[in-house]
Structure formats: structure tokens, C-alpha cells
Amino acid sequence: MGNVISKEKVMHVAELARLHITDEEAEKLTDELKSIIEHAQLLNELDTSDVEPTTHVLKLTNVMRKDEPKEWITQEEAVKNAPDQKDGQFRVPSILSE
């Protein structure tokens, strides 16, 4: 597979992204992108037939408690120590100006 990255394509993508890059920066980015793609193509040569697909590099598992119903406080108990409450709800100073 030939190199699909050209200076013109780099300049075009930079223009689409509203980035101003110089010719020198475009040349450098073109070389860097070509190098990245070449490295990625090397990975295609690896035999991964015996490798199980992964979604994460570490074997992580969630540790969760059993979901069981339990007693909880009532709405009245939740607001009883609030400095300001009305109709069973906490009242707080407004942060939006009118």
C-alpha cells in the first residue's frame, strides 16, 4: 500500500479544522503521519490468531454489592435539619440572575 498522506492532504485537513500551519509544519506533519501509518501497517503483519480480543489492556471487573431493598429515610426526615426548606424540598439561594 502506497503512502496515502500528502502535504496537500495535510494542508486540506488543517484548513477544514481552521488551523493555520506553515509549509514547514505541513512537511513535518506529513512525515510524522507517514511514519505512524507505516508503524501501524507493521502491526498488520503480526499473527494474532491465538490472541483473544480485548476491550481493555487490564483484566478489570466491577465489584458490586448485591442489589437488595433496604429501609431508607423519609422525605420529611431528609429535610428536617435543613436550614431552609419548603414543601418538603431544600431551598437554596438562586444562582441565576433575572
Automatic annotation (TrEMBL):
Pfam families: GatC. The keyword Calcium does not apply. Residues 74-98 are annotated as: Disordered. Keywords: ATP-binding, Ligase, Nucleotide-binding, Protein biosynthesis. Its EC number is 6.3.5.-. The keyword ATP-binding applies. It is an enzyme of class 6 (ligase). Heterotrimer of A, B and C subunits. Allows the formation of correctly charged Asn-tRNA(Asn) or Gln-tRNA(Gln) through the transamidation of misacylated Asp-tRNA(Asn) or Glu-tRNA(Gln) in organisms which lack either or both of asparaginyl-tRNA or glutaminyl-tRNA synthetases. The reaction takes place in the presence of glutamine and ATP through an activated phospho-Asp-tRNA(Asn) or phospho-Glu-tRNA(Gln). This is Aspartyl/glutamyl-tRNA(Asn/Gln) amidotransferase subunit C. It comes from Oceanobacillus luteolus.
